[in-house]
Structure formats: C-alpha cells, structure tokens
Design a protein that fits this description.
By secondary structure, this protein is mostly helical. Among the domains are: about 90 residues, Cytochrome c-like domain (Cytochrome Bc1 Complex, Chain D, domain 2, Orthogonal Bundle); about 90 residues, Orthogonal Bundle (Cytochrome Bc1 Complex, Chain D, domain 2); about 30 residues. It is about 65% helix and about 0% strand. It has 15 helices and 2 strands. Strand 1 and strand 2 form a beta hairpin. Helix 8 crosses helix 13, helix 11 packs across helix 14 and helix 13 packs across helix 14. The radius of gyration is 58 Å and the shape is elongated. The N and C termini lie far apart (about 230 Å). The relative contact order is 0.05.
C-alpha cells in the first residue's frame, strides 16, 4: 500500500483527452462543466460577430453593385442622349467605345446591368439615328432648293416696280394725310373713322374720294339734304394725294382709267339700253336729272366726265345704288359713259332743246305760246269787227 501510494504521488494520473467544445454539445457533461460553458460563450459571440460583419460586407457589396448599376445606367443614358443631340459624332467611334466598354466589363467579371442594351442594340439605335440625320439633311436640301427656285421664279415673273415708285407712293400718302387732317378730319375724324357729322371713309376706296372731291361736293361747306356740284377747291394732284391716303386705310374701288379710244370703241346701243333700264328713272331719259323725295334729287349728268360716271356707278354716292362688276361689267360701264357723253355732245335736231327735259316743257310751251297766240288772234279779230 505504501509503495503504491508513493508511486501514485510521483506519477501524475493519466487523463483522457477532452473533446473540443462545439455549439451542438449537449448532455449532463456539458451542463456540469463550468469551464466548458465559459469557453463556449465567447466562441459563439465571435461567430455571431463574424456573421454580422459578413452580412454587412455583403450589403455593402450589394449597395456598391446597385450604385455601379445606377451609375452605368445614367452614363449609358447620358451617352445615348449625347449621341442623339450631336449629329457630327462618328458611328464607328461610338461602336469602338462600346466594344472597349464591353471588353472591360467582361474582363472584370461583372455581370451586365439588367435593362442595358447590348452592343448589337446600340449599333441598331445608332443606325436609326444616322438614318434620321440623313433624312433631315435631305429635307434641308429639298427646302433650300425650293426656296431658291421660288426666288428665281419670283424674280422672273414678279410685276415690275422699283424703289422710286414706292417712295413716290409713300410721299403721296403723306401729303394726302396732311390735306385730310386740314380739310376733312373735322367731320370724318382724325383717322377717317367717321363721326356724328360724317361717315367713315375706311374702305370707300380712291374712286369715292376722286368723285366727291373732283365734283366739288367735298369738302362740304354746310350740312344739307344733299351736296350740290360746284367747282373743286383742290387741284388734280391734291385730289390724287387724298385718294392715295384714303386708299391706304382700307382699299376699295380704284379710280377707273378711261381713254378716248375705249369710248370711241364702245357700243352706244348697248350703253343706251343699260342707261334706260337702270338710270333713266332718276336721271331722266336724256340725263338732265330729276327731283327725288325729302329734298334730294338726281343731278344732271351734263357736266360729268366719263371717269366720274363710272366712279358714281361703282361707289353709289348719295341715293344712287352701287353697280358692281357682277351687275355691270367694265365694258358695259364704259358703254354707259359713252352714251351719256353722246347725249351731252349731240345737238338737238329740233332746234332749241328747251333744256332737254322731254315732253313736259314742250307741252308747256305749246300751251303758253300756241293757245295764248290763238287767243290773242281771236281778240284782235273781234276788236276789228266792232269798228
């Protein structure tokens, strides 16, 4: 017993190897050993920390990948927009850049971004852009050619004119405006818009101004039922300037151009028919005028020129109706003017015309002269018989 105990004290007892601690250790041994429990907790905490760090690293990688993807998409969008806006960039250079970008992406091992077009799609898009650019260039060339052709045709076919005539017309308008403000604006307004004492002159045309002013009816000295004809107070040049100014405000019938050749070639028979059908009711059969209602009258045409007759037909002064081109053509209007001139120039075949008033003055003369003469003869005969 003594030897055995000594031996046991000199030699340590053999111990069996302790199995490694694990997270899955269970049983009474694991629960009974405080050293085993204390060593397991730090290991588990370290494993959890490693797992959390791995998760955060993965999240950072994912976020970086998303940021990279977003950046790639934005860059791709900007490149596409720049390619569409810049018409001078070469398609081959764009394709080479795409090839380099695809090679770099393939070498890095990164996956292609979802929704990003491939090289073939970008080539097709750039082909479409190139086609659109060519179409725009073709349209621009066609437009330029059309404008050039229009300019050439306008140069060849445009009516004649020069700066001198334009400046002369502008000068006439300025002079006419000055005359209008001096002698016409009191009744017709400063802008010829009319007033309570005078009608508007916008749109009446140069023919109306020439007729009213050349016959002396305007400017009107005093209001009346109708303006009488009198000697004009403006010269022919001033009348033309007034007409140019009024015509510039709104247009209208122009002053007719009637020459002796046109009057000599006109058909008097046709003019006589038109006059008797449309004018004789007011102006009398031989254009000597006649009274109307409310103090108005149809004036005599004895002093009217052919130009004034046609102007009156086109503008309708006072109570006269307007005869437009649809009612009376230019040729027929000249025929009417020629007929009126014929009436004024032709001598009376019966001697004294008695004012050309027709049968009324002739009958009155017959009564006064004929019957009176007969009565005088009868009285003379009776007086001789009494002696």
């Amino acid at each position: 017993m003594t030897e055995s105990s000594g031996t046991s004290s000199d030699t340590p007892p053999e111990t069996s190897p302790v199995p490694p601690a694990s997270d899955t250790a269970t049983g009474p041994r694991a629960a009974a050993s405080p050293e085993s429990t204390g060593s397991t907790l730090p290991v588990a905490a370290a494993a959890k920390s490693d797992a959390d760090a791995s998760t955060e690293a993965n999240a950072d990688v994912t976020a970086g990948t998303d940021v990279t993807a977003s950046t790639d998409v934005e860059v791709s969008t900007d490149v596409a927009a720049g390619a569409d806006a810049d018409a001078d960039v070469s398609a081959d250079a764009d394709v080479s850049a795409d090839v380099d970008a695809d090679t770099e992406t393939a070498g890095s091992g990164a996956k292609p971004v979802a929704g990003r077009p491939g090289l073939l799609g970008r080539r097709r898009a750039r082909r479409r852009v190139s086609s659109a650019q060519r179409r725009r260039r073709s349209s621009a060339l066609v437009l330029a050619f059309g404008l050039l052709a229009t300019g050439v045709l306008w140069t060849l076919l445009a009516p004649g004119g020069n700066a001198a005539s334009a400046s002369g017309s502008n000068e006439a308008v300025r002079q006419g405006r000055a005359l209008f403000l001096e002698g016409c604006a009191t009744c017709h307004g400063l802008g010829a818009q009319g007033s309570s004492t005078g009608p508007s002159l916008i749109g009446v045309g140069a023919a109306a101004v020439d007729f009213q002013v050349s016959t002396g009816r305007m400017p009107l000295a005093a209001p009346a039922a109708q303006a009488d004809r009198k000697a004009p107070i403006y010269s022919d040049t001033q009348i033309a300037q007034l007409a140019a100014y009024i015509d510039s405000l709104g247009g209208g019938p122009e002053v007719p151009k009637v020459d002796d050749a046109a009057l000599n070639d006109a058909a008097l028979s046709k003019g006589g028919e038109l006059y008797r059908a449309n004018c004789a009711q007011c102006h009398q059969a031989v254009a000597q005028g006649a009274p109307l209602t409310y103090g108005k009258f149809a004036p005599s045409l004895g002093e009217s020129t052919p130009t004034q007759i046609i102007e009156a037909m086109r503008t309708g002064p006072e109570s006269m109706p307007v005869f437009g081109n649809r009612q009376v053509s230019e040729e027929d209007a000249v025929a009417v003017a020629a007929y009126v001139r014929h009436l004024n120039d032709t001598a009376s075949p019966g001697g004294f015309s008695l004012g050309k008033y027709g049968p009324v003055p002739e009958g009155l003369l017959a009564i006064l002269v004929g019957v009176g003469g007969l009565l005088a003869v009868c009285l003379w005969i009776g007086a001789r018989q009494k002696r």
